[in-house]
Amino acid sequence: MNSRNQSYMIYLLLFIAIVAMVYFNVKQQPNAQGPLTISQVAQQIQDGKITRIVVKDDNSLLVISSGGSSPIEQTARKEPETTLVSQLVAFGVTPEQLANVTIEVTPPSSWAGILNLAYIILPVIMIGGLFWFIFRQAQGSNNAAMAFGKSKARMFSGEHPTVTFEDVAGIDESKEELKEVVEFLKEPQKFIQLGARIPKGVLLVGPPGTGKTLLAKAVSGEAGVPFFSISGSEFVEMFVGVGASRVRDLFEQAKRHSPCIVFVDEIDAVGRQRGAGLGGSHDEREQTLNQMLVEMDGFDTDTNVIVVAATNRPDILDPALLRPGRFDRRITLDRPDMRGREAILKVHARGKPFEPSVDLGSIARGTPGFVGADLENLINEGAILAARRNLKAIGQPELEEAIERVIMGPERKSRLISEEEKRIIAYHEAGHAVVINAIPEADPVQKITIVGRGQAGGLTWNRPTDDRTLTSRKKMLAQLALFLGGRAAEQLVFDDITSGASNDLENVTKIARTMVTRFGMSTELGSMTYGQKEELIFLGREISEQRDYSEAVAEQIDREVRKLVDDSYKQALAILKKYRKELDAVANKLLEVETLTREEFEKIFPPPFPKKSGTPQPA
Ligand code: ADP
Ligand code: MG
Ligand code: ZN
């Protein structure tokens, strides 16, 4: 038998198995009326309708009632534990009523036995067939003649993208970080000669539509190397073992075409933390993930394949993926700010006719929260509108209307932030920044943005001045105040508070609790630690805290924590009142340009105390 016939055999086997399954399932329910429940049977006996019930050995019932000329047959099921009679009695059927019904119990027929046997044997044959199939699959990489193997090989013919960095806008920092990868792919020898360790894996992290796929393609286009891509969700397939062999094939192809890029989209689909799934088997995923790790670990210095992966859920990735020598480069793609949006609009406006009066800057201002994909969509909608209006060029009204269409449209990747919301976020972030600047112990502000990151409306970074491992009490108090600065600003300016501060409050609670229970930094409780922490060292996660103190002490701890937080909030509020003019100025500037660097911020609010600089810390 040649290999071609073998693969036909697989299809034939599966076909027969499926037909058999369907057939037996249909056989099970011969009556289209559907089975009766025991209570319905009981009711019909009480109504005197039923003349005979046949109890079969698999607990199914054939219920025969005297209906007019010919008897009616219906099916039902009894519970397996007890007899039919006791179940009917439980539903209130009296012995007199039962006497009118003939109850027959059929002995197991030989035919039923054969059917049962078929039920057992068929799955065995199917599973056996599957195993055989998988076994063949595993060998498939050596046996290119296999039908499945062939189609896979075709799938991974690397494409040569034509997009370059020119086509990617608004994410300049991410682009900058990838330039090195491009250089390596262009001239690997230059790096290898110097013994430089080349990144094997780059992880692109960002919300949907921010250009992760585009950027990966641009790297390959820029370097002029082939681009092999696969999506994590494709691996979640029905046959166990296929995912792993697909990965093997993919990497084999890639190595043959090196230098090149392997792009794994939606890596979270396979790279989820192992053992974190909800029920079911995740063997398939796990095997796929393991295979990917094995392949990456097996890269030699001259393999010259760089794996680029994309995800919007870095938080759920298996830590094994992020270990050194794997995806140890992480590049974040943020939602674009106003300047970024304008640059992206310009990219997509290229080669399209526009009225001279069109102002893309104003469109960018009107689309806070839009990502690259939305902006591309916007330009496209504008062009469609212009065409429908029989215009020669796209005008401002069409673009304005296109904003609406994108917001309403099904393809939208993100939501537009309202003016009111934007104002609150601006004051919230300005509040953080102003408090940071006004406290000598706080690390300087590095960057402020009101462009949304995940759940948070905006973000303010400040950097420690050096790599300290010891933290002082003053420093921790400063942290409490700066985290609370956002909410305090909302309170001060709008006389109301929003849910946007929940992340801040979580941080504040954690810091304050640690100060009291771990670092002995409260005056009332003194220099003692409370509670023993058990940590899973390997995972680096806390699993539980054992209490070794009384209820009274617990209350005291809560009181101390609350006092620390309350005092810090008051401090933040006082600072913001004192620097209200600066707060307004920073917020207004943020509303205008959305992102401020340290220099831009300090121009508006020169630090009252000298500040140095060092690693970013989001607030
Ligand atoms: P992701 O993979 O992050 O979901 P994509 O790369 O698929 O996003 O982006 C979809 C489309 O949106 C791209 O093909 C491109 O046309 C447009 N786009 C997204 N981000 C940008 C950007 N930064 N610059 C230019 N166009 C972009
Ligand atoms: Mg994508
Ligand atoms: Zn905040």
Overview of this structure, please?
By secondary structure, the chain is α/β, with parallel strands linked by helices. The protein folds into four domains: 31-108, Signal recognition particle alu RNA binding heterodimer, srp9/1; 154-275 and 284-332, Rossmann fold (3-Layer(aba) Sandwich), CATH 3.40.50; 338-408, Helicase, Ruva Protein, domain 3 (Orthogonal Bundle); 419-604, Up-down Bundle (Methane Monooxygenase Hydroxylase, Chain G, domain 1), CATH 1.20.58.760. The protein has 23 helices and 15 strands. A hairpin with a 4-residue loop joins strand 12 and strand 13 (541-546). The longest helix has 31 residues, at 110-140. The radius of gyration is 34 Å and the shape is extended. 35% of the residues are buried. Mean pLDDT is 80; it is low at 28-32, 140-154 and 535-541. Bound molecules: adenosine-5'-diphosphate, magnesium ion (MG) and zinc ion. Residues 212-213, 265, 310 line the site of magnesium ion.
CATH level 1 class label of the largest domain: Mainly Alpha
Classify the helix fraction into a percent range: 40-55%
Shape, principal axes of CA atoms: extended
Content of β-strand:
5-15%
State the oligomer.
Answer: single chain
Features:
single chain, alpha/beta, Signal recognition particle alu RNA binding heterodimer, srp9/1, Rossmann fold, Helicase, Ruva Protein, domain 3, 4 domains, four-stranded mixed β-sheet, 23 helices, 51% helix, 12% strand, binds adenosine-5'-diphosphate, binds magnesium ion, binds zinc ion
Give a brief description.
This protein is of the alpha/beta class. Helices cover 51% and strands 12% of the residues.
